[in-house]
């Protein structure tokens, strides 16, 4: 079993930045793709970014949260932790951000093939 714990959410002013963390325990991320998803109130879950733990390849959707490089996903092998940096935050970025682990980028980007979820961390943006 892989346990995922997100942290780093909170209230930020519009235009600010946040760095979210996803700490894995139980086993390593090494055979997984790690991803960040978010769900805003009343909206469907959408994926924000994916990273292959083994080779570091990344995938971002063609969406507002990834536009102009606003989001950056990274990982740190030494402490088995992944990160999501989101810049130029807007009120519409308010959502619960979830960390997830799955097997392939191709399935996870379709919101499928996800084996593990964290409980999420709330990001709120004041205007």
Summarize the structure.
This protein has one helix spanning 105-108, and strands at 3-7, 10-13, 18-25, 33-39, 46-52, 58-59, 71-76, 81-86, 95-102, 114-117, 121-126.
Structure commentary:
- By secondary structure, this protein is mostly beta strands.
- The chain is built from 1 helix and 11 strands; from the N terminus they run E-E-E-E-E-E-E-E-E-H-E-E.
- The protein has one helix at 105-108, and strands at 3-7, 10-13, 18-25, 33-39, 46-52, 58-59, 71-76, 81-86, 95-102, 114-117, 121-126.
- Strands 2, 4, 5, 6, 9, 10 and 11 form a 7-stranded mixed sheet that branches. Strands 1-3-8-7 form a 4-stranded antiparallel sheet, with no helix packed on it.
- A hairpin with a 4-residue loop joins strand 7 and strand 8 (81-86).
- The protein starts with a strand and ends with a strand.
Radius of gyration: 13 Å
Count every beta strand, where a strand is a DSSP E run of 2 or more residues. 11
Using the alpha-carbon principal axes, give the shape. globular
The amount of helix comes to: under 10%
Task: List key phrases describing it.
mainly beta, seven-stranded mixed β-sheet, four-stranded antiparallel β-sheet
Task: Give the topology.
Elements: E1 3-7, E2 10-13, E3 18-25, E4 33-39, E5 46-52, E6 58-59, E7 71-76, E8 81-86, E9 95-102, H1 105-108, E10 114-117, E11 121-126
Parallel strand pairs: 2-11
Antiparallel strand pairs: 1-3, 3-8, 4-5, 4-9, 5-6, 7-8, 9-10, 9-11
């Amino acid at each position: 079993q892989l346990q995922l714990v997100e942290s780093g959410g909170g209230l930020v002013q519009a235009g600010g930045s946040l760095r979210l963390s996803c700490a894995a325990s139980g086993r390593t991320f090494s055979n997984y793709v790690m991803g960040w998803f978010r769900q805003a109130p009343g909206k469907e879950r959408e994926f924000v970014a994916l990273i292959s733990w083994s080779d570091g390849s990344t995938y971002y959707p063609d969406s507002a949260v990834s536009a102009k490089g606003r989001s950056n996903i990274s990982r740190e092998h030494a402490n088995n932790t992944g990160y999501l940096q989101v810049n130029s935050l807007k009120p519409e970025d308010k959502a619960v951000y979830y960390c997830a682990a799955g097997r392939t980028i191709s399935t996870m980007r379709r919101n499928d093939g996800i084996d593990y979820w964290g409980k999420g961390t709330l990001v709120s943006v004041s205007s």
